[in-house]
Amino acid sequence: MDFLLLTLITPFVGAFFVYIFKNKTEVLAFIFSLITVLFSLLNFFEIYFSKIEITYSFSLFKWLNSGINFTLICDPLSLILLILIVVIGLFVVLYSVGYISPLNADHPFYKPYENYYFLLLLFIGAMIGVVTAGNLLQLFFFWEITTLCSWALISYTREKKALFSGLKAFIMTHIGAFGFLVALALMYSEVKTFDFSVISSLSNKFIIFTLLFFAASAKSAQIPLFTWLPNAMVAPTPVSAYLHAAAMVKAGVYLIARIYLSNIYLTDIEAFVVGIISISTMLLSVILYYLQDDLKKILAYSTIGHLGYILFGVSLGVYGSQTGGIGGVFHIINHGFAKGLLFLSVGAIAYATGSKSIKELQGVSKRFPLVTACFLSGMFAIIGVPPFSGFWSKFMILTGAFELKNLTTNIFGLIAIVESILAFCWYIFVGHKVFFGEASEKVLNANDKIPLSMKISLISLLILNILAPVVGYPFIKALLGGN
Amino acid sequence: MDYLYLSLLSLIFAMFLTFFIKNKSLSGFVTLIMTSFSSVCLFYLSLDIIIENKTVEKEIFSLKPLLNSSLIIGIDSLSALFLLVISLVSFCVTLFSWKYLEAYKTESPQRFYPFLVLLFISSIGVVSVKDLLFFIVFWELMTLSSWFIVVFEREKTSALKGGLQYFITAHVTTAFLILASVIVYSYSNDFSFKEINKSFLLIIDKYPYLSHFILFCVFIAFVTKAGVLPFGFWLPNAYPQPPSSASSFFGGVMSKLAVYALFRFFSSVIPLSYHTQVWGFIIAVFGVFSIFIGTIAALTQDEAKRLMSFHAIGQVGYMLLGIGVGLYFININPFLAAVSLVGGLFHVFNNSIYKSLLFLNAGAIFYKTGTTDLNKVSGLIKVMPITAITALVGSLSIAGVPPFNGFISKLLIFESSIWSAKQSDVFFLIRGLFIVFGIISVFISAVTLASFLKFVNSAFMGKLRGVINEKRSLPWSMVLSQIILAVVCFITGLFPFIPLKIIYNATVSCFDLLPSFSSVFIVDFKGVGINFFENYSQGAWYPIFVMIPLILLSILIFAFEKYAKAPKRDVETWYGGKEHAPEEVVYKGHSFYQPFKDLVSFRIGNIQFKGFYPVKIPKVEFKIPQKFIKIFDIDEWFYYPVIDRIKKFFQFFGKIYEILTEKYISWLVFGSIFVFVLLFYIFGGRL
Q1: Which distant-in-sequence residues (6+ apart) come within 8 Å of B555 by Cβ?
Q2: Chain A residue with minimal CA distance to B140?
Q3: Which of A103, A113, B193, B517 maximizes the CB count within 10 A of its CB?
Q4: Contact: B639, A227; criterion CB under 8 Å
Q5: Does an H or E element contain B174, and which?
Q6: How confident is the model at residue A64 (pLDDT cuts 50, 70, 90)?
Q7: Mutation target vs A (from B15, B63, B66; most A CBs, 10 A cutoff)
Q8: Any A CB within 8 A of B217 CB
């Protein structure tokens, strides 16, 4: 269990070193993120092979005056997110080595890269902090660090639009965090503790749950505070990939999933709040798909929709269907790998052709077969074509929705199917338009040489994307009480 | 069972291997070797099961506790029948592809063979799983891999359009299947076919409308994949696009697997009840609809593969008619149902063979001429006689000409639909309808013959036209695969009692209340008869007796010609003294049946119908109103204005602070007094 602590500390140490040694930041960042992955793997193997229970926690020191410890926990849910955060973090850092360069046709980046890698490592560390936090206060602490990192990274290019988008993201998620803070205060005033499991025993649990959900919905870009995410697409593509696949937006769904898993006595009202918000977000996002021209923006709206899917699954869990709830958690990992892959492949296209517009791109497959394979497999995973990963989790969520024999969830389930179909149609159309057909001018003039580091991360994520259900399966099973 | 693993293993190995081979010939050869190995394994396995008439079932792994579903492989006689077809067709298809793919110069085989092999794997999966969730997985895998093959030529607009249409339609209807499965799961709590069968009776009892809805979802999912009109509108656009060898597997196996699925669901997944009867009738109606429209539309086509695609629609209609009539009568008259179901299933078997053969013929034409447009080629019998003969065999089979195999299954379907008139306990209108169905299908059989005569005539007869390179002869592998399929057509036609027995066993393995084989059919080595009345040879056929006079006649005519020593001379066609260029007067594929085509082509509103099939549908254009879009831009109408307001509000206070120092001081004074009063009030005057 020392490894868990090391996993948490390493990125911060790395960030520190990167900040001090200004040259060769990318190498340092890569080494440290690799070490983080190693530690988290060791952590995983330790508990897996020594047959210690897969769930454990330990307290480091007391902080604040009363009995609140600085606690790290590690259970299947944390592990799922931990894998996502460290693995995608590693590949995003690796990808950035190639992408953040003067050769980039979309937006050339010149040395010095200032604090790009510092922020990335800090981001990784903060996310690890979020998912291993043992209580809500500690979670909130790391939660705000992620907000800070995302603000700095979104406005990294220092262009006017980027600065505005960064500020927008910061303010919007901060409004949500205000809800979090109020919830914490209310909680502390009643039970003097920040444990996850006390929420259902509070007297005003609905208000506290709703406030926490408000915070999570701002972070996970749900209605009403979702507009920051599409704007955040001005960030360099690896950052958007990380933001969408593993970090930031996943913090919100993690919070709700955590509350769901540690509280058995939540009622239907709470479930309904989560359900109605997530379903309407899904519908909204699928309508907005059809209005986009920028590939990254489509992916952004699709992220919004899929976070809605995850939250919908969790709300089904609160309603009482275990299949649905666990399906939602399963969707976190499946969506994470697929979305990361999609963003990175769009980044590769932009790197080579200098365009992300659906109108301008055509016939990419002939010149970039690897990118095409990556995009298509990510796409099939996202839209849920079996045997790709998205199908399994979506199917579990749908099964949960109909298992309950509750009219509300049945209607929600139907809407989810409709959303799925509509999303499928647009995705497959975009895939056809961008990758097949005769090559357009932009593609013909493209720079053929995609750096090796980008290729390696694309291929690794391609494999991980295909294997995602297999990777997630043991943890999901452990969540359900199997071994 | 081990043989199934072996065959799957070799196919998976082939898939990974061909992913990395860039050489067309080598890649094809690897696929051929692996597929023939797997075909042999499958062939042995299915023969073993068919002969011993047993059921093998094994659970590979289970998804519990996530979902109550496990990958159950179960092979009964019905699955074995389809495995037999898959093994035969997949072998011929890969044998054909090996050299054929060289006709596509610019395309890489890496985008063809892996997906073709994946298609084989998924179709084996579809016929052998006994669990709804994994059935859906394999079903979609089949769609996915076939989509990749349809868009094989990535720069051809029609291929892209067809692929898009196909994938969207197939996926949307699979969503119906998924919906049905999750609804069923909420009652059965298990995805295995057995458990669903047990609990479905409860759904029928308690919620009849819900169960109709479930059956509707299942029906629409399968019927769309089978290409039954009006759901099969995508089929003529998608099937002609891939290389012919793949089209041959599509037409021969993939669309038939949809019929398999329909049969499987209505026989062993869903219990027999009144619902079966209702849906049997609906299936028959849709079957007849697509027989009629599909085949007549096929008559108007000039492109060989598109013509065959329309026939695929028409032929699926025959199968559905047979199965539908069978399902309708299964509770009323098992005897009639047996004849009808066996007819439908037999037609599936026959159709797989000759449809694959015909697509391969079209492929051979493409290899030789670079086109399959019947207006551009003719006289090919001179350069590829064997293809011409096999095409003739395939055409006669699909048209149901005795003694070829199509005749037998069609006969069973006709007889059963017309004999249903004798069922006095059925409402007379329905009986009448069934008779009309029978008559329509007999008539359409003639139309089929006409349209295939057109194919054979315009492609193979007449003057030689359109050949790219006369020296390049057809490779032996392509010829051999056609010969194999033609021989199978011929033998099943000549000795129908062997397949009939197999298919009867397959049918009985799904419906156990059917009568025994010997009480339905009388079999001897001359042929087979239906046992409508004992000791009457009513509804019997003796293909050998038909064959013998035919052979005698041919020998006689041949002998006459030889004996008379009639002189043969090649002359220019005489146009009654007028001078015409040969291009002006040549009888192209388009010229066939012009009056009939005019008769069935008409116009309603903006839509032009050709052979009752809409050809040009005006584009429906709609623009999303800007107001509607604005609703979703919350930024514009909510967040930014609110922030503006807040900003202005603070600016207002800022002004006070900046301009008027005295007022600011007075604000301070008043403010502190207010705070003081407030504190005083809160603490109740005890300061």
Answers
A1: none
A2: A386
A3: B193
A4: yes
A5: helix B157-188
A6: low
A7: B66
A8: no
Q: Using a CB–CB cutoff of 8 Å, tell me whether B178 touches chain A.
A: yes
Q: Is the pLDDT of residue A59 over 90?
A: no
pLDDT in the model for residue B543:
78
Q: Is the dihedral of CA A17, A464, A144, A302 positive or negative?
A: positive
Q: How far, in Å, CA of B181 to CA of B496, rounded?
A: 38
The confidence score (pLDDT) of residue A460 equals 93
Q: Report chain A residues whose CB lies below 8 A from the CB of B635.
A: 227
- State the pLDDT at residue B533: 55
- For residue B271, report the phi and psi dihedrals to the nearest 5 degrees: -70, 155
Helix axes A389-403, B132-150, angle to 10 degrees: 140
Q: Residue B135: pLDDT band by 50, 70, 90 thresholds? A: very high
Task: Find, in chain A, the residue whose alpha carbon is nearest to that of B177.
Answer: A417
Check whether B488 has a pLDDT greater than 50.
yes
Flag whether residue B144 sits within 8 Å of chain A, measured between CB atoms: yes
Which member of B168, B175, B186 has the closest CB to residue A403?
B186
Q: Report yes or no: A100 and A116 within 8 Å, Cβ to Cβ.
A: yes
The pLDDT tens digits for A415-448 are: 999 999 999 999 999 988 888 888 888 888 887 7
Q: For residue B513, report the phi and psi dihedrals to the nearest 5 degrees.
A: -90, 10
Within 10 angstroms of residue B630's Cβ, the number of other Cβ atoms is: 11
**Structural contact between residues A311 and A397, judged by C-beta atoms closer than 8 angstroms:** no
B281-295 as b/e: b if 16+ CB within 10 A? bbbbebbbbbbbbbb
Q: CB-based contacts of A14: which residues, under 8 Å, 6+ apart?
A: A28, A29, A31, A32, A33, A35, A36, A121, A125
What pLDDT sits at residue A14?
Answer: 86
B179 touches chain A (CB under 8 A): yes
CB pairs under 8 A between A and B: 97
In this structure, what are the phi and psi dihedrals at residue B445, rounded to the nearest 5 degrees? -60, -40
Which residues in chain A (385-404) have CB-CB distances under 8 A to chain B?
385-387, 391, 395-396, 398-399, 401-404
| Angle CA A438–A441–A443, to nearest 5 | 75
CB contact under 8 A, B168 and A438: no
CA distance B58 to B395: 41
Residue of A nearest to B187 (CA): A403
Sequential DSSP letters for B290-357: HHHHHHHHHHT--BHHHHHHHHHHHHHHHHHHHHHHHHHHTTT-HHHHHHHHHHHHHHHHHHHHHHHH
Query: How far is Cα B604 from Cα B143, in angstroms, rounded to an integer?
Result: 34
Q: Specify the DSSP element, H or E, that contains A254.
A: helix A249-262
CA dist A301 to A170, A226, A298, Å? 19, 9, 5
Helix or strand (DSSP H, E) at A439: none
- B594 shares contact with chain A (CB less than 8 Å): no
Residue B304 in contact with residue B377, Cβ under 8 Å?
Answer: no
- Looking at the partner chain, which of A288, A387, A399 has a beta carbon nearest the beta carbon of B182? A399
pLDDT band for position B552 (cuts 50, 70, 90): very high
- Measure the CA–CA gap between B487 and B498, rounded to whole angstroms: 15
Name the nearest CA neighbour of B320 among B226, B252, B411.
Answer: B226
* Pair A325, A318: CB distance under 8 Å: yes
Work out the burial of residue A318: count CB atoms within 10 Å of its CB; fewer than 13 is exposed, 13-18 middle, 19 or more buried: buried
Measured CA to CA, the distance from residue B366 to residue A132 in angstroms comes to 63
Backbone angles phi, psi at B614, to 5 degrees: -65, 125
- The helix/strand/coil state of A437 is coil
Torsion angle of the four alpha carbons B181, B182, B186, B191, in this order, in degrees rounded to the nearest 10: 50
Q: Which is more confident, A443 or A324?
A: A324
Per-residue pLDDT tens over the stretch B655-668? 766 767 777 788 88
Q: What is the ipTM metric for this complex?
A: 0.92
